[in-house]
Automatic annotation (TrEMBL):
Pfam families, sorted: Usp
Domain of life: Bacteria
Domain UspA: 1-134, 144-271
Transmembrane segments: none
Gene3D superfamilies recorded: HUPs (3.40.50.620)
Name this polypeptide is given: Universal stress protein
Family designation: Belongs to the universal stress protein A family.
């Protein structure tokens, strides 16, 4: 049995981009796809059942159209319409999946996402890696970007990014960002030895984080990049030129998962490209 990609869809225009991304990924790795859409839960209003039935039928038709396209492309696909809370349904659907793919209505830098909170909550609580596809064209871009701080979670992100880079035939840019210790008061500037040491230590951590990936993928072109600044800002800036960006989620436990991790949260809030959140 092939591994399954779960794809969360709605009637939003971005769903076309979501299905396209999932199709290419599934075909390359021989995975099956489950298309899931959610009809809102009821509140007991008069006439609600007939509206829900109409919505259910429309959702079935939408999924059937997408499924026909995937089948024509040779992808094994199933469909499912659920009723309830989209976040809860997709989080549950992610359990046992190799990947959850969802869309964002973000139109690019500076636009944000009207429904961005849904994507952040889903990414925070999902049981599998989550790929968020924004509603803008990323064709013509190149390279896979991954942010790493040397932690166990970011190691998983690096492995995921390397596999995707190989699949796409792209180079991998591994980014580590260090931030100077804040200095209160009027003092400005930092001693050069401190800055040089922070740069050197971060570069050493990055080299260590990439050691196993270099062994596993000896032919993969890997670019090491160490920057000074704020991580989410630099990741977002570099993501504007990348085909895919990958970051780790540090969410642990129910409360931490809701927070997702400030860096991951901020990257999702200002999507620069198709972005994967890996835990």
């Amino acid at each position: 049995m092939s591994e399954k990609i779960v794809v969360g869809l709605s009637a939003a225009p971005v769903s076309e981009r979501v299905v396209t991304w999932a199709e290419q990924h599934a075909k390359a790795l021989g995975q099956s796809v489950e298309l899931v859409t959610i009809v809102g839960g009821g509140v007991g209003a008069v006439g609600e059942d007939s509206i829900a039935q109409t919505a259910h039928e429309a959702a079935q038709q939408m999924l059937a159209t997408h499924a026909a396209r995937l089948k024509e492309a040779g992808v094994d696909v199933t469909v499912r319409v659920e009723r309830g809370n989209p976040v809860a349904v997709l989080v549950e659907a992610s359990e046992g999946a190799t990947l959850l793919v969802i869309g964002s209505d973000s139109k690019g830098p500076g636009s944000g996402s009207v429904r961005g909170a849904h994507g952040i909550r889903i990414s925070a609580a999902a049981k599998s890696p989550v790929v968020v596809v924004p509603d803008f064209d990323v064709s013509g871009r190149s390279g896979v970007l991954v942010g790493t701080d040397g932690s166990e979670v970011s190691a998983a992100a690096v492995r995921f990014a390397a596999i995707e880079a190989v699949r796409l035939g792209e180079s991998l840019t591994a980014l580590s960002v260090w931030t100077p210790m804040p200095i209160p008061g009027p003092l400005s500037g930092y001693p050069e030895p401190y800055l040089d040491d922070m740069q050197g230590v971060t570069a050493e951590i990055l080299r260590g984080a990439l050691a196993s990936v270099r062994e596993e993928h000896p032919d993969l072109e890997i670019v090491e990049r160490v920057e000074c600044g704020y991580p989410s800002t630099i990741i977002t800036e570099l993501a504007h030129d990348a085909r895919l960006a990958v970051v780790g989620s540090h969410g642990r436990g129910a409360f931490a998962r809701l927070l997702l991790g400030s860096i991951s949260h901020e990257v999702l809030a200002r999507l620069g490209t198709v972005t994967a959140i890996v835990r």
